[in-house]
């Protein structure tokens, strides 16, 4: 008998939704929101059309970086249940199309930001794209359990860029906004990693729960949450905001810390019983939306 050749898988026809999925729209929502909050909270004024352009560039840059992330990690995504149905592992797009799409969005976002707003904002935007697509995705993530700690800077750029788009300069306030997201990222992401650690282990990604174990991860979540509380209130302490933001920052960060204590002091449990971790992860998203929303409300009241 003659062996029958195995059928060659043919990529499914892609449509706009697959390209849109490459931009990680859920993540982009938070990126756009914090970037917009940075722009609205900054002192001074920007023409609404230019403000819209700046936020659009932030969104395109984030989408381009996300597409490059999925291009590079297509094989890894195929091994993880959480990501196996993305356009590339799902066979609906060619890898080179995702790469070219990511480069196009990234390049266009930086160019338009530079020409329409100013080149300082464009340079910081370009830095954020390189930080996520190269420093985090290609270098840190597959090599060190500190990938999220160091790579957290990638998601911390949007409010800094939004602020700079208005003011044209880097001052302490936008740096603090950057630092808040930077310190928020590890407990946010490690809470997720605790209940999907088997996926990361299967794909060979050295996330903290896989390499250091659950106990060490829980302790580090608690440590970062403790640092986040005074850091989140720092814009109020230095006089950069009013009491609306300050009270909101303290209250939200206190809840964040309480949830982190529940995670930090808990012994290892089966994945399906990790309710404190899931509560912390869910609240961490609400936390950032509410914190930056309070920043804008505070600014509007004081204006």
Automatic annotation (TrEMBL):
Pathway linked to the protein: Porphyrin-containing compound metabolism; heme O biosynthesis; heme O from protoheme: step 1/1
One GO term (biological process): heme O biosynthetic process
Keyword Transferase belongs to the record: yes
Cell compartments where the protein resides: Cell membrane
Pfam families, per database record: UbiA
GO molecular function: protoheme IX farnesyltransferase activity
Organism domain of life: Bacteria
Keyword Ubl conjugation: no
Transmembrane portions of the chain: 27-46, 52-72, 101-134, 160-184, 221-238, 244-265, 280-297
Catalytic function, reaction form: heme b + (2E,6E)-farnesyl diphosphate + H2O = Fe(II)-heme o + diphosphate
Keywords annotated in UniProt: Cell membrane, Heme biosynthesis, Membrane, Transferase, Transmembrane, Transmembrane helix
Residues making up the signal peptide according to the UniProt record: none
Membrane topology: Multi-pass membrane protein
Family annotation (InterPro entries): Protohaem_IX_farnesylTrfase, UbiA_prenyltransferase, UbiA_prenylTrfase_CS, UbiA_sf
Major subcellular location class: membrane
Function: Converts heme B (protoheme IX) to heme O by substitution of the vinyl group on carbon 2 of heme B porphyrin ring with a hydroxyethyl farnesyl side group.
HAMAP family reported in the protein's UniProt record: CyoE_CtaB (MF_00154)
Miscellaneous section: Carbon 2 of the heme B porphyrin ring is defined according to the Fischer nomenclature.
Family: Belongs to the UbiA prenyltransferase family. Protoheme IX farnesyltransferase subfamily.
Protein name: Protoheme IX farnesyltransferase
Source organism of the structure: Aurantiacibacter luteus
């Amino acid at each position: 008998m003659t062996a029958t050749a195995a059928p060659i898988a043919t990529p499914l026809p892609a449509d706009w939704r697959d390209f849109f999925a490459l931009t990680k729209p859920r993540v982009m929502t938070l990126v756009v929101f914090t970037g917009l909050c940075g722009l609205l909270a900054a002192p001074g004024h920007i023409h609404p059309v230019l403000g819209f352009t700046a936020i659009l560039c932030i969104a395109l840059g984030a989408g381009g970086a996300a597409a490059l992330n999925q291009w590079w990690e297509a094989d890894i995504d195929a091994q993880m249940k959480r990501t196996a149905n993305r356009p590339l592992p799902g066979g609906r797009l060619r890898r080179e199309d995702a790469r070219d799409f990511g480069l196009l969005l990234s390049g266009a976002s930086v160019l338009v930001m530079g020409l329409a707003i100013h080149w300082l904002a464009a340079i910081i935007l370009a830095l954020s794209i390189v930080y996520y697509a190269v420093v985090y995705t290609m270098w840190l993530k597959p090599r060190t359990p500190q990938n999220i700690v160091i790579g957290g800077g990638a998601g911390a750029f949007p409010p800094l860029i939004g602020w700079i788009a208005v003011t044209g300069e880097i001052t302490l306030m936008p740096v603090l906004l950057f630092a808040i997201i930077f310190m928020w990222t590890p407990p946010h992401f490690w809470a997720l990693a605790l209940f999907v650690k088997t996926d990361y282990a299967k794909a060979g990604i050295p996330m903290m729960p896989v390499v250091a174990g659950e106990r060490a991860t829980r302790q580090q979540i608690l440590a970062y949450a403790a640092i986040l509380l005074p850091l989140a209130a720092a814009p109020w302490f230095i006089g950069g905001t009013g009491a609306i933001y300050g009270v909101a920052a303290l209250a939200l960060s206190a809840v964040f810390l309480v949830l982190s204590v529940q995670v930090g002091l808990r012994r290892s449990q089966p994945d399906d019983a990790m309710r404190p971790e899931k509560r912390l992860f869910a609240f961490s998203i609400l936390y950032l939306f509410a914190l930056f929303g309070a920043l804008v409300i505070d600014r509007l009241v004081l204006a």
